[in-house]
Automatic annotation (TrEMBL):
The lineage of its organism: Bacteria, Bacillati, Bacillota, Clostridia, Lachnospirales. It comes from the Bacteria. This is Uncharacterized protein. It comes from Agathobacter rectalis (strain ATCC 33656 / DSM 3377 / JCM 17463 / KCTC 5835 / VPI 0990) (Eubacterium rectale).
Length: 46
C-alpha cells in the first residue's frame, strides 16, 4: 500500500519530466533544423 501510494505521487512528476524533456529536445531540434535550412538558403542565394 505504501509503495503504491508513493508511486502514485511520483508518476505525475515523472510524466511531467518526460514531457519537459521531449519539448526541450524538440525545440533544440527545431532550432537546429531552422539554422540548417537558413544556411542552405543563404548558400543558394550567394
Amino acid at each position: 500500500m505504501c509503495e503504491k501510494s508513493g508511486a502514485w505521487v511520483h508518476a505525475p512528476f515523472f510524466r511531467w519530466g518526460l514531457t519537459a524533456k521531449y519539448l526541450y529536445n524538440r525545440t533544440i531540434l527545431h532550432k537546429f533544423t531552422f539554422c540548417k535550412c537558413y544556411a542552405d538558403r543563404k548558400r543558394r542565394l550567394a
